[in-house]
Design a protein that fits this description.
433 residues, mainly alpha, 21 helices, 5% strand
Length: 433
């Protein structure tokens, strides 16, 4: 029975093929010239046009030309092509996603290419840098990791854009990345700057529960959160806790806490923070000392502020203009002009230069007490005489500001000091302004 059926099929198959697959039974025609021209036109205007990366618009602005001319020579051509397109990008003519998709399809970039493009966009401060980063995180060629998401979250935190930062965090978790210590530290900074102290505290406690070793960055972020919330006692307690573990925060953290105490006029708290800085091996400069002097002056403790000035001179730290102005303002509040002038005379004797800003503070003080006209000329003469003495001292010290150079006919020494030029030519002195 099977042999009969197979024989019948072989007998039937040629007739079936000849009738079914006969070209005359189908209305098949090759494309003519008109249809091919129409296909070419659709390819040119169609749904997926091709970009020419070397063909930029001719009407470039001066800023665009400057940015394009400053592109690094070591950058690859594929990266330069995209950066040029982004510099000349116009949302009215094209879309950013289309440009990036076309670049990926035609250039076949790797992670190093993406990083080079993002670095250059960040350097020239292009607004499209964040949007390009968002697109790159979804591309397989970028090979995104947890640190890339952390940088984007930090950027959104700097912009106080919590909605997009939390969305990026959820996308990161959706792709299987778990928060590490660096990401949680960025979240503490972000929520503290947004005024959400409770969220910062929750994340800090979560870091401890997860078993992360709290480093100086995490402590510094939490201390800054307490400082922004004006909870200075808790910030100082956290500093003591970190110091007991031999973990010392950065200089800016101590300086921020010292500034907060000085603005409140809490001289005791400012002195404690100042001592903690020295314990953390942070050498105080004139600006840090100025914050301590400000705290004492706001608390009407001028003698302690002057002790700080004396200690600065002993260790070789020259008081800045702010230090002197704070003490002068404190003397002005108590209406002690004689003490103020005596103080200026002492620091000038020790070699501290009285700047023009300090004289302006004195001038404003004289104006408020009604003796500006009488004292203005005196201050001007003192100021000019001081510069004249320094200038003559500079002239006596040959080679201190310049070297003698031999030229045809004698020696010439040319020096510059605050707009004055001194020339010594054949024994004659000329002072030109």
């Amino acid at each position: 029975m099977s042999s009969i059926s197979s024989l019948a099929f072989h007998n039937f198959c040629p007739n079936f093929i000849s009738k079914t697959f006969n070209p005359s039974n189908f209305n098949f025609k090759p494309p003519n010239c008109a249809n091919s021209a129409q296909i070419t036109t659709l390819a040119q205007i169609g749904e997926e046009p091709k970009l020419r990366w070397t063909n930029l618009k001719l009407e470039l602005t001066q800023d665009q030309k400057r940015l394009i001319s400053q592109l690094p020579e070591t950058m690859s051509n594929r990266c330069k092509a995209l950066v040029k397109r982004l510099i000349c990008f116009s949302s009215q003519n094209e879309t950013l996603n289309f440009i990036l998709a076309a670049w990926v399809k035609s250039m076949k970039p790797q992670r190093a290419d993406w990083l080079a493009v993002l670095k250059e966009l960040n350097r020239i401060d292009l607004p499209l840098c964040i949007e390009v980063t968002e697109y790159a995180l979804l591309e397989d060629t970028f090979e995104a990791n947890i640190r890339d998401y952390t940088k984007l979250i930090h950027t959104y935190g700097e912009q106080n854009n919590l909605e997009k930062a939390e969305k990026t965090l959820n996308d990161m978790k959706g792709r299987g990345f778990f928060c590490d210590q660096v990401t949680l530290t960025a979240l503490i900074n972000m929520y503290s700057k947004a005024g959400k102290l409770n969220r910062s505290i929750e994340i800090f406690e979560e870091m401890k529960l997860l078993g992360f070793s709290i480093d100086k960055r995490a402590y510094g972020a939490m201390i800054m959160a307490f400082i922004r919330a004006e909870m200075l006692e808790k910030a100082e307690y956290l500093i003591k806790e970190s110091e007991n573990k031999e973990i010392y925060s950065g200089k800016e953290v101590y300086k921020a806490l010292l500034r907060a105490y000085s603005n409140k006029g809490d001289s005791r708290g400012a002195q404690r923070v100042y001592d903690s800085m020295q314990f953390a091996r942070i050498l105080p400069d004139s600006r840090i000392c100025a914050l301590l002097i400000k705290a004492y002056c706001f608390a009407n403790e001028i003698n302690e502020a002057r002790c700080v000035i004396q200690n600065m001179r002993k260790v070789g730290v020259r008081p800045c203009e702010r230090c002197i102005n704070y003490i002068l303002n404190a003397y002005e509040k108590e209406n002690r002009l004689d003490y103020a002038l005596r103080f200026l005379k002492e620091i000038e004797r020790d070699g501290v230069r009285i700047s023009k800003g300090v004289l302006e503070v004195l001038n404003g003080w004289f104006e408020r007490i009604g003796v500006k006209e009488e004292m203005e000329g005196v201050l001007k003469e003192i100021f000019e005489a001081k510069y004249r003495e320094e200038f003559e001292r500079m002239e006596r010290n040959d080679g201190f500001y310049g070297k003698k150079t031999k030229y045809k006919g004698g020696f010439k020494t040319k020096r510059r000091y605050d707009g004055f030029y001194a020339k010594k030519d054949k024994g004659k002195r000329h002072i030109n302004k």
